[in-house]
Hints:
The complex is a heterodimer of chains A (487) and B (1049). In chain A, strands 1-3 form a two-stranded antiparallel sheet. Chain A has a two-stranded antiparallel sheet with strand order 2-4. Helices cover 49% and strands 3% of the residues of chain A. The longest helix of chain A has 23 residues, at 123-145. Chain A is mainly alpha-helical. In chain A, helix 3 runs antiparallel to helix 5 (89-107), helix 7 (123-145) runs antiparallel to helix 8 (167-185) and helix 7 packs parallel to helix 9 (201-218). Chain A has a domain at 40-254 and 335-435 and 450-472: Alpha Horseshoe (Serine Threonine Protein Phosphatase 5, Tetratricopeptide repeat). With 1049 residues, chain B is mainly β. Chain B is built from nine helices and 59 strands. In chain B, the strands form 14 sheets. Chain B has a 22-stranded antiparallel β-barrel. A five-stranded mixed sheet of chain B has the order 10-15-16-13-14. In chain B, strands 43, 44, 45, 46 and 48 form a five-stranded antiparallel sheet that branches. Mean pLDDT of chain B is 89; it is low at 8-21. Chains A and B meet through helix 1, helix 2, helix 3, helix 5 and helix 14 of A and strand 27, strand 31, strand 32, strand 36 and strand 37 of B.
Amino acid sequence: MKRYIKQLSTCMVVAAVLSSCTKNFESINTSPNDALNPNTTLLLSNALRSLGSQTEGVAGWAKDLYPQYMAEIQYTSESRFQNTIYNFYPIYNAPLQDLQTIIALNMDPVASTQAYVTDGGDSESQIGVARVLKAFYFMHMTDRWGMIPYSEALQGRANLTPSYDSQESVYNALFVELTEAQEQLKGGGSVNGDIVFNGNVSQWVKWANTLRMAAALHIRKVNPEKARTEFLAAYEAGAMSAIGDNAVFRYLNDANNQSPLFNNYEVTGRVDYAVSEYMIEQLELHNDPRLSIFALPALSTGTYVGMPFGLIQGQTGAYNRENVSLIGDRFTAQNSELPLNTYAQVEFMLAEAAFLGWIPDAQTHYLNGIRASFMQYEVEDLEESYAEYVAQPTVAYNPTSGLEQIITQKWLANYMANGYESWTDWRRTGFPRLDPGPAPQNTNGSLPRRQAYTTEEAGRNTQSYRDAIAQQGADALTTRVWWDVED
Amino acid sequence: MERKLFSFILAWLLLMGIAHAQTRTISGNVVSSRTGQPLAGATVRATGTDIAVQTNAQGKFTIDLSGNTSTLTVNFVGMQQQIFPLGSDNTINIQLDDEDQSVGEVIVTALGVQRTRNSLGYSVQAIKGEDLSMVRQPDLNTALAGKIAGVQVQSTSGAAFGTSTIRIRGINSLSGGNPIYVVDGMITEPEAVNMDDVADLTVLKGPAATALYGQRGSEGAVVIKTLGGRTRDGVGVNFNQATSFESVYLLPKYQNEYAGGYSQEWSTYNHNPNIAPDYLAPYDGVNILNYGADESWGPRMDGTMYMPFYGWDPSHPQFGQLTALVPQPNNVRDFYNTGVSANTNIAFDKAGDNYQTRFSFTNVSRTGIVPNSKLGRNWLSTNSSLNLTDKLTVSANVNFQHEVYNNRPKDGYSSQTTGSFNQWFQRQLDMSTLRDYKRPDGTFRSWNIVSPTNPNPAYWDNPYTEVYENTQFDTYQRIYGNITASYQLTNALSASVIARGNFLNMEETERIASGTLQQASYSQYLNNQDEVNYVGTLAFKEQYGDFTVDAAAFGEYRRNQRRFTDAATAGGLAVPGLYTLEASIDRPTVQTRYFDQRVNSLYGYAAVGYKDFLYLEGNIRNDWSSTLPRDNNSFLYGGLSTSFIFSHFIQPNEFFSFGKLRASFAKVGTDTDPYQILQTYSIRNAYGSNPLLTVPDVIPNANLLPTLSTSYEIGTELRFFNSRLLFDFNYYTRSATNQILNLPISGTTGFAQSLINAGRIDNHGYEFTLGGTPIRNSNFKWDLNANIGINRNKVVRLDEQVSNLQIELDDTPSSFGFVGSPLITLNAYEGQPYGQLIGMGIVKDDNGNRVVGEDGYYLREDNMNLGSIIPDFTGGLTSSFSYKNFRAGFSLDFQKGGKYMSISSMFGNYTGVLAETAGLNENGVPRRDPVENMGGTLLPGVKENGEVNDIFVDTQNLYENDMFSLWEEWVYDRSFIKLREVNIGYDLPTRLFQNTPFKSASFSLIATNPWLIYAKNRNVDPSILETSWFEGGQLPSTRSWGFSLRLGL
């Protein structure tokens, strides 16, 4: 028996040793694979990198298909609006969460003094930049989906089922955000990791005010007074005033950062997209010098041949990459540019404001917009081409059809850029006069008026999703968002 | 040299025989040890000779022996063979024990503890090694199919060389989960188990059985004891060779009426001198197909002369030659080869008073049905022990495995072979015209050329380009085993120290060749993972009067480490054909990871038996895991089980032979993976020289608790008619609380998943086994065993904020869908059973009829419940026969109910490849003809006003647009019955080689997966589903037949 006791005590020693071996467990369980501290410089770069992503940013094909800059050659599901569902999760997950983290760190009294935050630059500027970019993403989202989680979003575990905010309250919040952010940025302190404006904070101020002007025009039919006030205040505060102010995401000559169209044309060799027939028609109608920049002649004919938009698959068999005009090299280059907002847009917005009587001189702004677009696309013999182009009676400003002219020119100027804005203009004004093709689905014979929420939302955020639909209308392409009112 | 040695040994043995030739007569009787009844027709043989007699009706025998015979070998069907040592007595009495399910059957349980079956208070099922290796199933789990109640085998196509997984007792864990495989104490992977080395295999199903394995055994354990050296006659060599031939079994039913294209109208070639070379001018006006189409809605295959894709290729021997457009019904089958698999094992074993040892070498060489796919596998293992002193024993078991895969065929939607054939293909293609895939200049020929003047592939490479040029090369090296020293302190008490290790070193490389559809690339994945553990044990075994006591205590230290590098070139290769990372044109994408986890444990058990009819066992375990927060990292659990042999109190009779009741209760605790509790930030691919960092998508949990699952189990085991009929029933419940899982959450939170302790998921189930030996006489024996398992579950509580879990079951994504289209998701709603498929469905009327709209297409409704993937029940049937030296057997398994989704069925119809898109419609008119010409397809259902649908719709539009992502149409019942294996064997009579050193020889014919007896949708074999709930372009099911030869000397 004694022996057993001895062995038992040995056993207990073993037990004590084993349990005391847990002392370093915390360091063992600290990941050596990831950064322990959030470096705000790198977080900002990532939130900006997302801009050029098809899922996390604004570069999905719909941006070029809905405004009919391009048409699908063979598989036409997206241009026939068979695609209804677009997923906003990646936008919240990647750029917005990173921006939210930048703001939270800079607001936190302890974290904001740490090197991983202070290295990111001036604290006010870091917050300001993050707020502007956040506002850009949120406006982009609410214009696509309508109601979205905003005030309860991005809170992680604190709220796993964020409710949806009405588009009106999102817009109200965005006006405040953009106004306050550009005030914060006027301090001028630089930021690091800015891969769009290279830390030039005054450019951010201009982008903020440009976004605020765009937002104002979006809501001008549902709240004309607020629209006017916000527009004029933003213009006053200083919007983009030269093409050097353009907010542009630049793809790189690098497989990890290349343009999606380069990937489709050159890497996978699928060549799914060509310039739309309507686009070619519009360019040819006004002898537009941008035609040869925007499109390539069809290989088999040597002439410009647009691809009809939204054909059914039985009809597409007659078309292939050889007998239609492919998209111009400038846009299919590996390191092509993705303009987000431009000076040309600002001039067209001013022209629209003038057309509405908010400011004077629609024609000047209209012509400035065209000129800015020619400059942006580096049209050869700029002055001569421009003069020739605007001298045409169909191009010269005509106050009776002013809005159509302004928006159509704005549409041309936004070719293959952030086309969601062009789609928004179409929804607001009905211009340009886009034909949805012979067999659109899910849209009652029109273009989509919004995009549908991801299916997963119905299963993961069920009640909020149902409440949003109850308030906004069916989760369909035909449901109009708040600012999209029928005339 | 070897031959000389062999002859020498032979001669020597013969001489020995002659030298000792003397005769002796022995007589006696043979009885059953259990019943005492005489056994008529038992064979009594002088061991190792052909001298044999049979017992008479009274079980008596008389045999004349040569003087050097020292043992008799006694055989009786259904009884264990006995080698009876001859003493000086010439009259002997031999008792034989029942072969299987016998009263004294010893079972290997958790931690390798051997117990009598009777003493176990929980359900286990055991399989003998030879039953596994008889039929050469390519992997262990597939070999278990149908043999164990409550085990669902999830196999994938044999063509992929993959191993299947098994699920014990349904889905207990919200994320699926697989059992552990324990080989001589070391937890390893099922693919590491060499079936040639298995002596005994036991499946431990519930927590009561596995609690001693702790957290890792929470989903069950497959416990394997490997063969060691045996005291035996002969030299101690076993040789076993099996060769089998594998071929494609089921392919989808294709249509053979229409060729590739998007329209039935013929097109002609219009020579355009601007873009076309002059040598094509003569072909102006010839019929062409739409080569760039990857669908088959094209012209009728009616013999029309046309220019095939290769006719435009000036380097092709048939350049410029028209051919007739005719059906190629066997084109897909023609692509596949007959795979050949050779499995050779040689083992040497011996045992003496102070040692036992065994060496085994196995080689598997296999070619697959997909051209250029190859597998080579070698195992080397040894299992030995030495009794160094009376008290000190040292043993070691080491297994080394080396595997090389060349081009392991890929399952999946975008695979360039199956993914294309069944989903995106032109039906008129003749495989013989594709085989010559390379042009003299090294570029590749695709059937899917953009146009006559553009030879680039539009969407697909030639499948032969894929298999010969886009190659993969994978190697795996695994070594695992243990070394143990045990010391007998007293008769009752022993102590041992065990060191175990399991080391895996793997490399997977993949090439995408320059000039193929995809950008050229090279990727390399290097992974090292290992586990080391040390265990100290104190074991006690003693008998006190009517009581037996068996107890042990263990202390264990375990460390798991893993490090990997995953890298791929980006932007192409600097030099075509140079497959290295440094050839990357852009900065390669690289991921390096290191994981470290430690678990310390103390555990033990105590089992008490009373008079062979009442048993009680308790076990307890405490783990300390590094992966949990400090305050929660110690967790205690254990179980109690009891077994009562009530037949002990029943007078032995002819009808009722044996009865046992068992009951158990257990808790098992589980931790998680490393690095889950602290917030960290992840690097992403840099933007130029700007590094990127992002907040990861999973919300960590600093307050994580261990998972605890509690189970109760009761069962009974009954035997009737002298144990000829066996019945086993088991009922269990299991409740898992605080399950650790990544809960998929709304992305609007800023995250994709939240690591939580999920509330509670409950399971209960029934297992029935009915078996027996309907016929048994001296020459013939027939065994039959059937089992059924039923499991039901319910998600009781999930999370305070979220009431639905979209589940990533066994690493299958929780949802599937195409960009822009509604997803189909796998869900677990609170208060409901787990595994509900939800997606776009079809509106039904009150009678359940599908409703069509005014246009004749189905009315649809999103977020419809499309059924559960959980089967109603699963089961199997095995049977074996033996007649004299012949034996035969088969096994089948089945599943009733459960749903799966088939992407390849959707696309096979979308692209007009499958049979249902062609043929005649209800009007007797081709369904592909225009609706206005009485063509089209009539969807079964009713109109909104209740009338039977009579509106035909355009067939192509139906499948290309309307049925796309209409998930209800593509969700199928997964019920199936599959014959898994059939074997026929013959043991050669020993007299045939009595003058040779051979002691035994047998020959078998074997067939694996010969027949899918039943399946609802035979376009897909549901028994080999690519993922846990859907498939897309899965490889075809295969069947194989072969033969095996075993020799013993």
